[in-house]
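Milestone M4 deliverable, item 7.
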Amino acid sequence: MPPHSSVAILTKNLHQREMESAMDFMVNRIRRLRAWRRGLLVGLAASMLAACGGGATGGGGGGAPTLNWYIFNEPSDSYAAAAADCSAASGGEYNIQIQELPSSADGQREQLVRRSAAKDSSLDILGLDVTWEAEFSEAGWIVPWTGEGRRQVEQDAVKANLDTATWKGQLVAAPFNSNTQLLWYRKDLVPDPPTTWAEMISQAEALARQGKPHDIEIQGASYEGYTVWVNAMALSAGGSILSADGQQVTLGPKAAQGISIIGQLARSPAADPSLGVQMEDQNRLAFETGKAAFEINYPFVYPSAQQNAPNIAKQMGWAEYPRVDAKLPSRPPVGGIDLAVSAFSTHKPQAFDAILCLRNRDNQLRNAIKGGLPPTLASLYKDPRLINGGYPFAAEILDSLQRGGVRPKTPAYQSVSVAISTTLYPPSSAGPGRLGQLRTQLQDAIESKGLIP
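Output delivered:
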């Protein structure tokens, strides 16, 4: 169906009215449900005894509706614990059932896109990567937050996390957990951590001349992690890749300055020889073996080193993401998951209520300590339970997130990301010579020419 057909516009308008209605009456409806819940349960029990049968869930038999939460498999069981706790706390208003998505981000998106395009009514709560919100919102697949619900989500939210959940002025999802990168370094090799990329490369080259561990570990393979690096460098230099509305390519001289540093690093002795195939976990392993002096990576590397390489962990320091320009603060990557209500759910009020519970302080704290997933509530970063629970670098993470750089926001993000990670590959080629080609590829992407599904 053409994106601007009358049917599409009518469908979008119907979705909008439904969205506003769901949010406006959410609180009142939940209160009414709680008010007569006891009487309802008594009546249901009597009916079941009379009929010698059982009540159904999911909205058809009068029982507490089942809310299907589509989310990736979280190995620590923190999500499962949150689902159980919130189901119990609802007092019989709903039961949250986790529906596991594939482990890869591409697999997760593919399943959610297919189900949403089919208007699958089993979709209730969607766990969205922070780059998918524009796509799902533009398609009319998720319901924006309004009124009191929006106020609660925005309260105490980390700035960059809230930015990921916002599209065209609407809060289309609720930040659930976050992630960002820090500079990790060997204190026995680098007494004073560098503040800029130029300083870091210079220090690494000096260590190489001395025959000491010197590699800079970072994600250089042709995949999403490389796009993350490219975007952070463009933003840290004061530039950008796309306009805020995702409609124009804005890859100018400042962005080129930041991207050029990628090529400089890749061609220097400071680079890991396998930079072109390196991802986050390969970076972690290389640092733990003792061959590297620096690592740009997410906080999961800290507990990993403590467990797998305690001698390295003792010398492991952390600092802010390096700057491109000493006078400009860096714009570190922002990752994580936002939770959205499906436009096709038959239990929207309960789904909104459940999301508020799933992302509350206790659940975010457990996700962080047990699952290694940083919170999206700013005040938690000052909570001693978080700091003492494995986040001695909590202040640095919060600072990183408060000025973090969100990846380009566009419904065509998948195509944009592939254009970046392939056109500027290998990292040694990153620089002005490739930017003309990249601008063309990006323009084609946002115009849906050769769109990648």
